[in-house]
Amino acid sequence: MSENIEIRTIIGNRNINTVSDTPVTDPASGAKGLEGSNAFVCQRSKLDTKTSALKKSNRYRSRSLSASSTDSYSSASCTGSSSDSDDVSPREKVQKNSAGNSDFCVRNINQHAFGRREIEIAEQEMPGIMALRKRAADDKPLKNAKIVGCTHINAQTAVLIETLAALGASLRWAACNIYSTQNEVAAALAEAGYPVFAWRRKTEEDFWWCIDKCVNAENWQPNMILDDGGDATHLMLKKYPAIFKLIKGAITKFPTNALRFNSRYRNSRGECNRSSSSISAVERWQADRPAMNVNDSVTKTKYDNLYSCRESIIDSLKRSTDVMFGGKQVVICGYGEVGKGCSQALKGFGCVVYVTEIDPICALQASMDGHRVVKLNEVIRNVDIVITATGNKNIVSRDHMDKMKNGCIVCNMGHSNTEIDVNSLRTPDLTWEKVRSQVDHVIWPDGKRIILLAEGRLVNLSCSSLPSFVVSITSATQALADRII
Ligand SMILES: NC(=O)c1ccc[n+]([C@@H]2O[C@H](COP(=O)([O-])OP(=O)(O)OC[C@H]3O[C@@H](n4cnc5c(N)ncnc54)[C@H](O)[C@@H]3O)[C@@H](O)[C@H]2O)c1
Question: What pLDDT digit, counting tens, does each position of 56-72 carry?
Answer without folding.
Answer: 333 323 322 222 222 22
